[in-house]
Amino acid sequence: MRRVLRFTPFLLLLSLSLLTATAQEETGTAVQIIQGRTETTCKHPGIRRIRTYDVSSAEIPRAFEGFRILFFADTHYTSLFTTTTLESLGRVIQEIAPDAMFLGGDYQEGCEYVEPLFSTIMSNPPQYGTYAVLGNNDLERCTDTIKSVMNFYNVALVEDTAVQIHKNGSHITVAGAINTYQKVETAPSPTLKLDPHEFVFLLTHTPDYAEDQDITNADLVLAGHTHGGQVTLFGAFAPVTSSHYGQRFLKGLNYNSARQAVITTTGIGTSRRAVRMFAPSEVVLITLHSWSHGEKLPEPAIALDTKPMISKPLQIKQETLHQETLSKPQNL
User: Which residue of 12, 81, 231, 325 is surrounded by the most CB atoms within 10 Å?
Assistant: First the structure.
């Protein structure tokens, strides 16, 4: 009887966390969410999964149909992200051969690891470039080293600015935020000055930025920082989230109060302690699709109007797939 009583509080806590997660998903957003199949693999040691998203929008140009972006964050090299994991990441990049790469910050646990990290990441540079922001670890130490190494390997650091990715006479835009990790950021979002009729990615290390700041004109926010909690109760509740908003932006696809999509990756490395529990390491693969008014959106889908004032639908299909070798897109 005593064993049952001791176990009861844990069951109550787990049940409450599951109910809270469900409520957060169902309230505040008028979207349809159909989860794709989820599988994991140990083909590449240290990287548990590739989480994929298909993103459709009327403002993604036809030239970017099928354009693939590999996004990852929080390598924290070295941590649970070891030399073996770094080699795995290099192989994943080579196999996927993305058109572009987005990097979400917190790259290192020491200045001596910066050059080997980017040397491997950029051993197979994407045709349309690599774009990055800094994380809190990168602002605390090795900042100048990181910037110098990024410059050497042609990684575009988008700090409080925006750049365009051009293809066949069309473009999409990548904006990058500087995070101060305070409740109120010192600088306005770089998205405010952008054309509301172009498709805009916003890179930010912490997902809180998407809620704390006015990020008008951002179509899709990509963030890291939370590590998916790193240690969780069966993936349903994280005691530590590294976010002002608790479980809200912990991992995966969520929305800010302005109904803008925020994808938070669980990252690859670890901080404080080299352990993960029910918070698998991952990289994110995003495939873009051009959608025109009158065309039927494929299912399953997440239909979202990211800019209600101009009525621009954004549709995201989420899935987690096996890691597998993919053919490299032809150069155009």
Answer: 81
In 180-281, DSSP assigns E strands to 200-203, 220-223, 252-255, 261-264
Q: Is the pLDDT of residue 9 over 90?
A: no
DSSP summary character for residue 118: H
Q: Decide if 208 contacts 245 (C-beta within 8 A).
A: yes
Q: How far apart are CA 101 and CA 103, in angstroms?
A: 7
Write the pLDDT tens digit of every residue in 248-293. 999 999 999 999 999 999 999 999 889 999 999 999 999 998 886 5
Q: What is the mean pLDDT of residues 3-22?
A: 43
- Whether the CB-CB separation of 175 and 190 falls below 8 Å is answered with yes
Q: CA-to-CA distance for 226 and 22, rounded, in angstroms? A: 19
For residues 81 and 270, the answer to whether their CB atoms sit within 8 Å is: yes
CB within 8 Å of 27: residues ≥ 6 apart: none
The C-alpha angle 181, 182, 184, rounded to 5 degrees, equals: 125
